[in-house]
Amino acid sequence: MAVHYCGLCRRSAFTGRRHLYSAGHRRRLRETLARLQEATAAARAAVADVAAAVQRYDPAEHDGRVWCPCCGRGVRRDRRCGGRALLQAGLLRHLAGPEHRRQTARFWRENRAEAALRERCLVPAEEYERFAQALEQALSEHQRREEERILQMAADIRETERRQRETVQAALQLQTEPELCAGPSVCRPPAGPERDSPCAAEQPGPSRMQTGPDLAWMESSQVLTFIGHQETEGKGNVHTGAKPPWLSEEEDGSKQQIGPSYEEFLKHKEKQKLKKLPVERVGANFDHTSQTSDSWLPSFGRVWNHGRRWQSR
After folding, report:
1. How far is residue 48's CA from residue 41's CA, in Å, rounded to a whole number?
2. Band of pLDDT at residue 55, cut at 50, 70 and 90
3. What's phi and psi for 44, nearest 5 deg?
4. Contact assessment for residue 71 and residue 63, using Cβ atoms and an 8 Å cutoff
């Protein structure tokens, strides 16, 4: 029996064309046709709402493809028109094309699929023509709305710039107006409660330039804070010129030691080590501070001093 290669199952069958009636092949055929029918139904549903099919183009969302088992290739689901995406337009165009219709007939013939399911995977050419006309109208309407939105944004920008220019001109006019107060140079506000006069309120802020020094603060009774460098003897901090405490202690010579010295710490550490040793060990009571010489060792006989071992019995 001849070897038959099944493109749907992607394997060779040694039973010939009887493989087309096997349970595995029929199951894969049903799953493939179910996915194709689902994609076709979603594409034909976009015909009912053409206005929602025009959206802003997003590469991550509108660059998807749908696998067509009849043609054996991936089909772009959405179409792109400038900066806008036309939903399901690419798939509808493929399903309504004559090439897809011929490949569908071949696929149904080769895989022995049910003839009643064939029309569910096709889109009539008349339906696609109506969708294309409605999509063109929706696209023009979307472009008109986008142009109106851009014009409105431009008008808002121009209005904002006009208000800014008016504000700047008003500030410049206040700055160039002649002085209303009596006096050749500047209106000096008096001391006390009379400082809130119309002359003082005339200056709006930084835009009002002052041509002379304001000496009114000298007449007030408020105490001012001196923020300059102050010389204090032995008081303050390093920022005011005072010496740090460690320098003053070294100069005075009255530096007091805090805690034990390093030698005392070593002695204490040695005592702690000795406490961990056995109390009755050899040399526990030895006085390391006593004066010793070569004669302090005990006599161990000739083994220790000189001579043969048998002489020290």
Report:
1. 12
2. confident
3. -70, -20
4. no
Tokens of 104: 């569908």
Q: What gap in Å lies between CA 267 and CA 95, rounded to an integer? A: 98
**In 46-124, which residue ranges form alpha helices assigned H by DSSP?**
59-62, 89-95, 98-111
Q: Which residues of 276-311 are buried (b: 16+ CB within 10 A; e: fewer)?
A: eeeeeeeeeeeeeeeeeeeeeeeeeeeeeeeeeeee
Spatial contact of 268 and 259, defined as CB atoms under 8 Å apart:
no
Q: In sequence order, which ranges of 177-286 are alpha helices (DSSP H)?
A: 198-201, 245-252, 262-275
Residue given tokens 């030691």 in the structure block:
257
CA 299, CA 116: separation in Å to the nearest integer?
A: 124
Compute how many other C-beta atoms are within 10 angstroms of the C-beta atom of residue 110.
Answer: 13
The Cα–Cα gap between 204 and 163 comes to 19
Residue whose tokens read 């165009």:
93
Residue with tokens 């923020």: 227
Tell me which of 281 and 76 has the higher pLDDT: 76
pLDDT, residue 202, reads 47
Q: Which residues contact 294 (CB under 8 A, 6 or more apart)?
A: none
Report how far residue 181's alpha carbon sits from residue 148's, in angstroms, rounded to the nearest whole number.
Answer: 53
Instruction: Check residues 288 and 269 and name the one with the higher pLDDT.
Output: 269
Q: Are 29 and 113 in contact (CB under 8 A)?
A: yes
User: How far apart are the two ends of the chain, measured CA to CA in Å?
Assistant: 114
In angstroms, the Cα distances linking 171 to 105, 185, 310 are: 81, 21, 124
Angle at 89 between CA 85 and CA 95, to 5 degrees: 155
Tokens of 84: 């806008």
| pLDDT at position 174 over 50 | yes
Decide if 77 contacts 90 (C-beta within 8 A). Answer: yes
53 close to 89: Cβ distance less than 8 angstroms: yes
208 and 175 Cβ atoms separated by less than 8 Å: yes
- Residue located via tokens 């700055």: 175
